[in-house]
Amino acid sequence: MVGATVLDPVDVTGASPRHGGNPLANLRLVNLSHVNDPATTTLFPGDPEFTLETMATIPVDGFYMQYVMEGEHTGTHWGAPGHFEEGGLLADQLDPMDLYLPAVKIDVRQKAAANADYALTVDDLKAFERRHGRIPNGAAVVLWTGWEAKWGTDAYANVDADGVIHQPAFGAEAADWLISSGRLGKRGALGTDTFGPDLGTDENFEVSVMLYHRHRISLENLNNLRTLPPTGAYVLVGGPIHAAGSGSTATIYGVLPG
Questions:
Q1: Where do the domains of the chain lie?
Q2: Domain 30-42+75-256 class, CATH top level
Q3: What is the reported pTM?
Q4: Can you list the positions of beta strands (E) in 154-251?
Q5: Distances (CA, A) of 169 to 68, 74, 95
Q6: Lower Cβ count inside 10 Å, N or C end of the chain?
Q7: 55-90, pLDDT tens digit by residue?
Q8: Which residues are bridge partners to 61 per DSSP?
């Protein structure tokens, strides 16, 4: 699977003689991002075109380089509060710890397969906690809808004859419950393997507006979520920090216990 890379164990926690006593051993990184490729990257309708142009080659120039043209929200990416909130924090104003969060994954694949407009409910969240324990404060709550498998096809945007997108997402009441209850803490996130935390039918982006107003971030177009456990992992969010950035294209890693 493209982008479904599981990296070798990295030295992140736990001493081990095999690792020379390194106190940061035994954690694993998994790649939760799609590969950015104009041939497969699905753009949100109306977003800038994404292109890669070879500008230098080794035979001619002695080195290889591509020229990249894309919006900040191309492919797998994260959004900063200032993406929707006037005066909200922008990419270069965030603390590094805003981008390293405990993660939980909520699996709604069956419900999303039956209803492309399925919205996560508070009851879904409470059922998750009965099974897996309380969502930790300051979490990245990741919704696994199964949409990642549609990446690179028309089925991902799932646009109907009237131009309306149909994708599952967080319901507004569920998002408000996560924020108001403290489960997103002071620096949490909502993540999903779709265009974003809002239903495709929601032209007002109610959940995004709510999320960014509370100064949290969003993780969008995630991939390889089968490798992320329901609890016990972290997400590590990368990407260039542009001046006054609304977010960033990103390689997002799941950090898993060994």
A1: 30-42+75-256
A2: alpha beta
A3: 0.90
A4: 169-170, 189-192, 217-220, 233-237, 247-249
A5: 30, 19, 27
A6: N
A7: 999 999 999 999 999 999 999 999 999 999 999 999
A8: none
